[in-house]
Amino acid sequence: MKNQNLLVGLDIGTTSIKAVIADNGKVIGSVTTPNNGMRHGQIVDIDETAGAIKRALQDVSDKLGQPIHRVVTGLPVGMLQLEAATGLINVGESGVEVTSKDVKRVLQAAIRSAVKDGREAVSYLPSRFIIDGKTNVDDPRKMIAHSLAVNGILLTAPSSSLHNLKKAIERAGVFNNFFVPTPLAIASVALDEGERTFGAIILDFGGGMTSATVIHQGQIKYASVDLEGGSDITHDISVVLSTSNKEAEQAKVDYGFALPSLASTKSQFAVRTVGKTEQQLVDEAYLTEIINARLEQIVSRLGKGLKKHDALKLPGGVIITGGTSLLEGLDTLVANRLNVKARVFQPDQLGMHSPAYAAAYGIINYSNKMSDIDFMANSAIYGTEVLSDQAEMQLKKERSAKRRPILSEIKAQDDYNESNMSVTKTVSDQKQDSNKKEKKSFGSFFKKFFD
Ligand SMILES: Nc1ncnc2c1ncn2[C@@H]1O[C@H](COP(=O)(O)OP(=O)(O)OP(=O)(O)O)[C@@H](O)[C@H]1O
Ligand SMILES: [Mg+2]
After folding, report:
1. Is the pLDDT of residue 291 over 60?
2. Is residue 60 part of a domain?
3. What secondary structure letter does DSSP report for 140?
4. Has residue 424 got a pLDDT over 60?
5. Is the same domain home to 164 and 69?
6. Whose CA is nearest to atom 12 of ligand 1?
7. What pLDDT score does 5 carry?
8. Which residues line ligand 1 (CB under 6 A)?
9. Distance, CA of 156 to CA of 113 (rounded, Å)
10. Residue 344 to residue 11: CA distance in whole angstroms
11. Which of 152, 313, 315, 362 is spaced 20 to 30 A from 144 at the CA atom?
């Protein structure tokens, strides 16, 4: 029988697609499939990416014994830009009760006012509604008003990259209900309430990139993306040991550490060398040196931006996610290098015991905790009722009408977009380019990659 209450969270990563399935908010399964259609977080082949999503969802369907039609997808922080968005509408000359329709109208007005050319709205986070220009409320429905305003933050993404993602999901044969900002999704599961409020850094060590996102007062306050990740480490190993990418990946996963102090020169393993018949013996310590060098580079590059923006003083420290954080000792490396407290987060649900599942699990959790108002905002953006009627009703029963509080929105997003966001790109020829670090606004970053 078709279950309308199923929700599938999709994390479209450079090296793999992660899908987490929830039934009525309870996680019931998870799936990972390799993805060859992306580089450094960007889609370079829509069909390859679509194929990978399709395989992931086919695995999900096989597990559940029913087809998947709808998903919710995460958007990595590198795509996001924040805009202050305010809307104002007339409700009734003589003062009438505010209806859901009025709320949707004011949300639409706010969203429309803040979308810039070449970008699309992906999420709107209202911070407060204002009745008749003076009374601040969380949820204005059923209150008497002449006019209704809303203040909040609009998250947008470049139309071109969003198009590629939507196309890949569509070609995989499913409908995307809405997008969820991945760093907020991760924050919803990896950070506790105190960390989300008083501040912490999420360091997502993926396959194609590593991102640092500062969360403060429940919002994204600063983000920086380094376009290197686990695949670059694998590439380094393959070059230094003259072995195939596949062997290098296996060696990294089986024998690699993040910290040299954890590796032993006595422990050796054999790898096939390109062009030679006999295998060479390599010790863990040598392998770990290669891994450690790249990790140190990534962490210190990201650390510079974090230091500049005083993020390293935040009480929550650094919470590390992503598949590369399976390298033992990465938390210590980060703690030592950045002089902060650091820990690795991994979901403790069955079948998801990996920091690589933090985003997909977060997408499910974030979607499930969305308030009525959040759903109205999504419905204003995506133009449809975002979930099937039955699922919507079920979710309505569970979620509270109160929105998540977001503070000091206007200054926050100006800081975030104009001066704080940075991207460090390192091209494949790392020797040539090792000193060439580019700090760019997200606008120019995306211009470069998608135009
Ligand atoms: N046991 C392990 N030890 C070391 N590295 C690992 C291990 N398992 C996975 N990885 C690495 O984790 C990386 C993939 O992580 P993840 O799934 O978080 O990335 P992604 O989401 O596909 O990519 P991105 O977020 O960069 O777009 C790969 O480079 C892989 O080699
Ligand atoms: Mg990822």
Report:
1. yes
2. yes
3. -
4. no
5. yes
6. 323
7. 75
8. 13-16, 41, 206-209, 229-231, 234, 249, 252-253, 256, 322-324, 326-327, 356
9. 12
10. 19
11. 152
